[in-house]
Design a protein that fits this description.
- It is a single chain.
- Helix content is 11%, strand content 46%.
- The chain contains one helix and ten strands.
- The strands form two sheets. Strands 2, 4, 6, 7, 9 and 10 form a six-stranded mixed beta sheet that branches.
- Strand 9 and strand 10 (137-148) form a beta hairpin.
- The longest helix is centred in the N-terminal third of the chain and has 16 residues, at 2-17.
- The radius of gyration is 16 Å and the shape is globular.
């Protein structure tokens, strides 16, 4: 009985720290298909990103190609102009994906999005791409964000 109680408590605590699914737009996933996107501490849209904090971004996708490596590219799109967002690890193979990537396999890309204090407080659209060996998008997603103090 104690074991079951412990499991219930563990699952409840895990639920408090898990990322929430967000609505996204596929912006050109030519080499894969997105299954779902989860972002930590994003209970509503636009996702409010607080300066000086970091957020986890998880994207589950199915690859349509074989690829030895993958590279993440992130932008904040303001007024139609893409501005680079810096992420600590751009190598998708060091972000939850076991490389080489195999066609037909499902993967979950896991990344951290630090929001720098120097970023302006602004509404924008985050555009997140994971590119394959041929610089084609394994996934490309867009979701609204609001950078706040």
């Amino acid at each position: 009985m104690e074991f079951q109680t412990g499991l219930i408590v563990l699952f409840c605590l895990m639920g408090l720290t898990c990322a929430q699914p967000v609505k996204y737009i596929d912006c050109g996933s030519t080499s894969g298909k997105v299954i779902g996107v989860d972002i930590s501490r994003c209970p509503s849209e636009p996702c409010q990103l607080h300066k000086g904090e970091s957020y986890s971004v998880n994207v589950t996708f199915i690859s349509d190609v074989n690829s030895e490596e993958s590279t993440a590219v992130v932008h904040g799109v303001v007024g139609g102009i893409p501005l680079p967002f810096s992420i600590p690890v751009t190598d998708g193979c060091k972000s939850g994906i076991q490389c080489p990537i195999v066609k037909g396999q499902t993967y979950t890309y896991q990344a951290s999005l630090p929001v720098k204090s120097l970023y302006p407080s602004i509404n924008c659209v985050a555009e997140w791409e994971l590119r394959d060996d041929d610089n084609e998008d394994l996934f490309c997603i867009k979701f609204p964000v609001q950078i706040v103090n």
